[in-house]
Amino acid sequence: MRQTNPSHLERLVLEGAVLGGGSGIDRRLIGARLPVCNEFMLAVLQGSVLAAFPDLITVFDKKSALPLSSTQVRSGGPVTIFAVPARRLRLSSPMADRTLLRPIERLLNIKFPATAPLQQNITVRSGS
User: Fold this and answer.
1) Is the pTM of this model over 0.85?
2) CB neighbours of 96 closer than 8 A, spacing ≥ 6?
């Protein structure tokens, strides 16, 4: 059985962007939108895009800590949103072709940002 390197996990968490979480109701997530087309395409809060496909956007149930599929997320449900920047994922070359997103923008009435939002929003803390 393969064992996980804890320092590797710590780096993954730091490279991700926790968009909500903690105990109780996270007031920062009230009004968050998660447009879906087979998967979470954007994480939008107060008009700001916090993460966008091909970033990996995942949603967890705050009570059970289990991941939620797009069909399981309910409006007003207590969740934690976690995103991993696309630059940290192994993706095929079509993922960089922004023109492929145009039909999804029309379908969902959304606009993908020209640059990856997670690259702008991450604050990396140095270890002690």
Assistant:
1) no
2) 54
